[in-house]
Amino acid sequence: NVGIGNTTPDSVLTVVNPASSAALRIGLNNTSNNFMDADNNIFRNSAGSEAMRIASGLVGIGESSPQTPLHISSDSASGENIALQIDNNNTTAGNEISMLFRSRVGTTNTDFKITGIANAANDMDLVFQSDGATERMRIDSSGNVGIGTNSPSANLHVVYTGTGDGLVLESTETGASGAPDLVLYRNSSSPADSDDIGNILFRGKDDAGNDTSYAFILGEINDASNGSEDGNLFFRTQSGGSLDNRLSIVSDKVGIGESSPQTPLHISSDSASGENVALQIDNNNTTAGNEISMLF
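Request: output the structure for the sequence above.
Response:
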């Protein structure tokens, strides 16, 4: 056994330095500053700065005090500041690159995987999978997010089966006015009267397989003037293949069958035949002597 700085070597080569500097440095060549301090498990770059360290079984890259099995740190005030890059150098369209998160319950592996799928040049989807290869969410190359679908056609496209809740907005606020808000916000730099500001469509298919909007709620600006703003709300349904207003709230007036009500309640009917009843008031009580009234 050979000892350097040690009189009782217990291995083929034992190197000991009683000073604080490294006992052994292993470099690439005489002209490079790249080297490893073997006793401290520190790897240095060509400038002599620490690049990687192994401490108590933990690996630090750009981190001198790693806290996890792999701890990567980057220190940059500008740019993208990418700390980790994973490449698949295959050039075939459809190639994938993944990160797998695995834990074990009993003898069964429980997985979650994030995969990048290269559809074409500058065209990559990011796919989130769990429980094996079951896709849960996808962000496509255009920025559309799909939950339950691998081909989202809108900014957020949710597909599910069953009769349960498809979307839940939950507030844990205990105050009386702490209900959750669903906001349709049109952020226009030049708002004007009659601008549409929000739509809710109730869409299905007809018996020929065509997508059809059977009902529609439309929010509209009536008056965009600062200090005297008015809004409209229109309820539309399909009838005879035509999607028309059935109930219109125009500022503070309500129209039934009338899109431009002139009074607080304006009822219109458009029929060329029959009695053309525009308003019917019933009392469904069957007792003799029951009454029905209109109060003015």
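The chain has no helices and 20 strands.
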